[in-house]
Amino acid sequence: MPELTPGRRRELKARAHALDPVVLVGGSGLSTRVLAEIDRNLKSHELIKVRVNSADRATREAILEEICRQIGAQAVQHIGKVFVLFRENPESSQAP
């Protein structure tokens, strides 16, 4: 997946501003079910917010990297306990 340009990142941040988190990574951490839910939401919406209930910043950063690596998403923004993720849906870009 190509790297997000600064202009594209700015556009995605603006779109994400009004969104609410659709997936919660709880105390059990990043499970296969949570990854599957993130994947489903990215297929439907392309741009989502994910909330991580971990107090440790290093842990949250590791979770963000793992999500991006496993499902091919790109991190748009990481503010506190909320991630903004993007993955282009090729099916929606082919629509007339």
What is the first-to-last residue Cα distance?
A: 23 Å
Count of DSSP E strands?
4
Task: From the alpha carbons, calculate the radius of gyration and give it in angstroms.
Answer: 13 Å
Strands side by side in the biggest sheet: 1-2-4-3
Give a verbal description of the structure:
With 96 residues, the protein is an alpha+beta fold. The protein has helices at residues 6-16, 32-45, 57-71, 90-93, and strands at 21-25, 47-52, 74-79, 82-86. A 4-stranded mixed sheet has the order 1-2-4-3, sandwiched between helices. Strand 3 and strand 4 (82-86) form a beta hairpin. The longest helix has 15 residues, at 57-71. The protein is globular, with a radius of gyration of 13 Å. The chain starts with 5 loop residues before the first helix and ends with a helix. The model has no long low-confidence stretch (mean pLDDT 91).
Compact description:
With 96 residues, the protein is an alpha+beta fold. The chain has helices spanning 6-16, 32-45, 57-71, 90-93, and strands at residues 21-25, 47-52, 74-79, 82-86.
Write the layout of secondary structure elements.
Blueprint: H1 6-16, E1 21-25, H2 32-45, E2 47-52, H3 57-71, E3 74-79, E4 82-86, H4 90-93
Parallel strand pairs: 1-2
Antiparallel strand pairs: 2-4, 3-4
